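Q: What does the assembly look like in three dimensions?
Context provided by user:
Components: two
Sequences:
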Amino acid sequence: MSDPSPKPSFGSLLRRPETGSFLGLAAVFLFFTVFGGSNFASLTGAASWLNVAASLGIIAIPIGLLMIAGELDISIGSMVPAGSMTCAIISGHFGLPIAVGVIAALCLGALVGLVNGMLVVRTAVPSFIVTLGTLFAVAGLTLGLSVLITGTTSVSIKAGPEAKFLLGHFIGGIYQVTILWWIAAAIFWGFVLHYSPYGNWILAMGGDKVSARNAGIPTERVTIFLFMCSSMSAAFVGLSQAILYNSAQVSAGQSYIFNAIISVVVGGVLLTGGYGSVVGIVLGTLTFAIVNQGIYYTPFDANWASLIIGVLLLVAVLMNNTFRRMALSYTPSRKVK
Amino acid sequence: MPTPLLTLQGINKSFGPIDVLHDINLEVYPGEVLCLLGDNGAGKSTLIRLLSGVHKPTSGTITLAGKPAAFASPRDASNAGIATVHQFGGTFPLMSIGRSFFVGEEPKKGWGPFKTFDRKTANDIAVKAVRDLGITRITDGDRLVGGLSGGERQALAIARAVHFGASVLILDEPTAALGVKEAAHVLRIVLQARQKGIAVIFITHNVVHALTVGDHFAVLIKGAKAADFRKGDKTREEITDLMAGGEQMAELEAEIKSYMSSHPG
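A: Here is the predicted structure of the complete assembly.
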């Protein structure tokens, strides 16, 4: 009988879901360090892409988990402004304590997620369509209610020092505190997906929902829970931006939809579900943010950034497919006994 | 004569106006392999779905270990000890062997909310269970199920069923997608399961495979049980004829013959 758990090796690293995204990140980082010069690699340069990555990353991780479970949520594009407007209207316009605004925004996120999840589970309509519906519905509600209540589409909010410290200040003057929330989220979700037994449920659901249900996994509850988490994460990002910038706008979040999906896919999550890792999603988010921000440090026109992101996405998907094939065809050599 | 573990009495199943199964009576004994033979569309799959809790019979009773059994869900059936393994075995190709083995029954370690999936235990048990069935090529529980051969996946799925204490094992065409060598291995595993006292229901339309492992045979034709016999009661040719509906086979042969003679070369 041989030892069934071989030591980590270079080969076993190659078979992990995040390998492709790590190589992508390294390539992109190298590229911008060469062309962006010392400004890109400086602490300020790092802050510019870390700040972008942090708010995107908080949303991308639960989106990635949904995709691993075989679902998709694009309503986050409306949940970000909805969360920030809810917080700003309650705590700015009506002047209630900031905690009330924060809790209300998170509750709204939970509610929208619950609606998304229930609709997906009960109707069996693809989650893309369901959340496309709620994307527009929530956008309309946010706009309509904001104008109805405040008469404007932009509301200012003045947060107290505690709220500022927790959600809206710059560490060292340049790093958004959101970065710490992102790290916390990554640790939490990493534990859930890779160490807790529930991670197994999420992977199994994405692999084959019917078999997962037959194996006794409460697939409906898990699906609804994941939708609630993604909506709440989007609301959280929205409200923390309102607190950071002291104001909230009705339309500021549609870009999160595609950016989150790109980050997740570049991070090695399989679009059809059943495969992926939180580390991969974090690396994918970093890669996206570096391209998005790094372009400003290069002599190139910023318009080229989208081209790079598009090519990067395709390369990442192809590379991830290759690594997945390697993982599938891997057989431990028989001589090691 | 021992008592049957699983008995079907007067089972009928219809979907709307379409009758799929008529008046099926079957007895399955522990430590025996019942081969369910039949052509495509004969109702084999429907019968399995009734036993595995996917559908409920329109009428008739299923008795498991002396008690009437009405399964509300596949989960119910597997809790009662009926495990079903489908043609392609593991259905989670991108999960590791250890993880997929314990889907829904994860071994845990740790405390309170910090309970973690016990990967090492899961891998060790899964690898040992498969190796016990003679698949010695599997040594690493972190390997992905999708990387296993068809026979290894069948073995993994059967090992899983045995590990979780199945008393009835339903194998839905386990050898259909396999090469000769792999199929032989799966058949050997079927016999091992039988030796453990498990009642095996083996669905196939390969008569040779059925004759190799079967103790007891039932042939379904158009939703009705056309024959029910023990090992040695019928020859291979008789069974093949039965399955295809003997006369039709003869007609087809005659047709081919006349075609060949009218089209020389």
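Follow-up: The CA atoms of residues 46 and 108 of chain A lie 33 Å apart.
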